[in-house]
Amino acid sequence: MRIIVHNAKCQGHARCWAQAPDIFDLNDEGYILPGDIDVEEKDELLASRGARSCPERALEIDRTSDALLDRLLFNQHCGG
Amino acid sequence: MVRDFSLFTSAAMQRTKNGDPHAAVACAHAGPPIFFSPYNTRDGRGTWVITRANDQRKLLQDTATFSSHRSIFASALGENWPMIPLELDPPAHGVFRSLLNPLLSPKRVMALEPAVRERAIALIDMISASSTSCDVMKDFAFPFAVSIFLRFLGLSDERLDTFVGWAKDLLHGDGIKRTAAARTIVAFIDDLAAMRRKEPADDFMTFVVQAKVDGRPLRDEEIRGIGVLLFVAGLDTVATAIGFDLAYLARNPRDQELLRSEPDRIVLAAEELLRAYSTVQMIRVATKDIDFEGAPIRKGDYISCPTMIANRDPAEFECPNTIDLAREDNRHTAFAYGPHRCLGSHLARREIVIALEEWLSRIPDFRIKKGTAPITYGGHVFGIENLILDWS
């Protein structure tokens, strides 16, 4: 899973960091650092909680890569 | 499009025994999402009222169309200067915000935590050693929140009652009291700034008088604008939140027991209580004629974004009027949205969590004292008083 960071939307609520301080990094002013975040599978629950708690909708959960993989595995399973 | 509604004068906004002003305003969702309310300010001026969380978010993020410069405090004195950074719009807003953000950042607040907790424990221990009942606002919430805040500003606790009195007059008093309080606060801040210029100390006002923005020192009016805002913003908001939260727990013993036996739940629960008992309305001024979600807003019109209404929006929150202390996905707007998000929110949150943690771990099963009734009211900051808890 990947978190797409819409840096310009961040207003420093720091709700993501409160949920998952090891996944979301803040600068000295309390705003999120730029750059999308690749999330390891074990951290997905925490990361998605953090992203879903952003009041400004600055964090977008990108599951496209997961979805592609799922489809691929499903197709293989079905012999497709 | 016009509705009889006012956060100041409507029936449920008056002082009410066992009142629930938040539930009263949540009824707005039964009507149109945007309406005009002819008396929705203290001075009786009308505002558009935005009820939906999503519309409030859009509006508060669009600072070019919806200005925050209202000179609300100075206008009470017949003057015109902004409280900073609240009443400055971007881009001017940004330089001051950057100056002040590090003082109240999440990491900075972590460093303040031990002192905050120590203060809470001292007050609660004093209460429980002397009685099995207390007036929570007078004996705990105000002394706790205001002393933390005074410590942050570098002021001593000795004048705590005086400062709280000024804030009460300013936020809840009639016109004459309000003007007098505004004058007193401005004089106090001006004097303090002058004192710290002459004799620097290790405190907030010294930081402000020595600070630079865009490579120049701050002007007197800017120092005053920052001092007044910081002084006023922390005086009764956190105390009020703690009051509403403890009143809720006093009336809901099952939730009280849940948090007492599983204190790890308090952080999440505090967010739900912030949602359910938000106390502030944001007001903006339209900088141009605009049709906003069907509302014909004209240049100069006031637009209100009451947090307590957005936070009960059924489009945003499942069962918004149910208080569910385990609620997740709680993107509430208690600290507003956009560039003006509450600068003190991180400290406020920690104070609320610590107050609940220490209260629940030290005070046994408590309820509203028989024969008493907490009084609630609306206004610029919603309030609660006469909250007598009993654990005999």
TrEMBL record, chain A:
This is Ferredoxin-like protein. Signal peptide: none annotated. One of its GO terms (molecular function) is metal ion binding. Keywords: Electron transport, Iron, Iron-sulfur, Metal-binding, Plasmid, Transport. It comes from the Bacteria. SUPFAM superfamilies: 4Fe-4S ferredoxins. The keyword Membrane does not apply. Pfam families: Fer4_15 (PF13459). InterPro entries: Fe-S_cluster_ET (IPR051269). The keyword Endoplasmic reticulum does not apply.
